[in-house]
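Practice set, problem 2.
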Amino acid sequence: IICDGVSLQLTGGPQLQGIALLNIPSTHGGTNMWGDSKSKFSRKKVKKDGELSSSSSLGDLIDLSSASQDIGDKMIEVIGLENCLHMGQVRTGLRSSGKRLAQC
């Protein structure tokens, strides 16, 4: 997957069976697949030496745990799902969100 010209490295984490591209805060009757953010408006940059991780936006490395989802920000949120059970667990509240991959 290429986001803003940067190839996302998906090999370091859990194996993903699904990818979701989101532009709205809820799906499936109210499920927030992006999850809640630590901070409502801040986006903290993370410095890494040379190697790009899966958290990127416009080429900058971003701590996605504090990235908020906004329908008017002209950005697409990219999340990964380990399997179909993972989506169901988010829907029922057993898990807080999918795996945040990028915001671009």
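Problem 2, part (b): a different protein.
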Amino acid sequence: AAAEMAEDLEMQKAAIPTILRALWSANAIDIAKTLKQVCKAVLYGGHGVDPVAKEERLRRAQGLAILGKTFRAAGGGADGGGMDFETFQDSMFNAAQADAEKRSREEEEGGASTH
């Protein structure tokens, strides 16, 4: 059972980077697309937002710039701050490993009490 668990863990460990990289990329694309749509709606109207006059558009653009700076400062951005892919991958692997160990302990405890 321990050898099987170790083998399963190695297989999971080998697959995790590919899966996480795909999820990371898909999320980045989705976020970028959503932000583009929101910014366009805020600046020009559409998607349920009334058309925007030029003066208001300038004020909104300044507000979006401030918001962007705030998000970069809080969560990292192009300057390298925040969680990078490798850190995210490590935390996901550690969570999966802890879950597998917990399930293994539960199985052992369950098996010991029935014998």
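Answer key, part (b): DSSP finds three helices and no strands in the chain. The mean pLDDT is 81.
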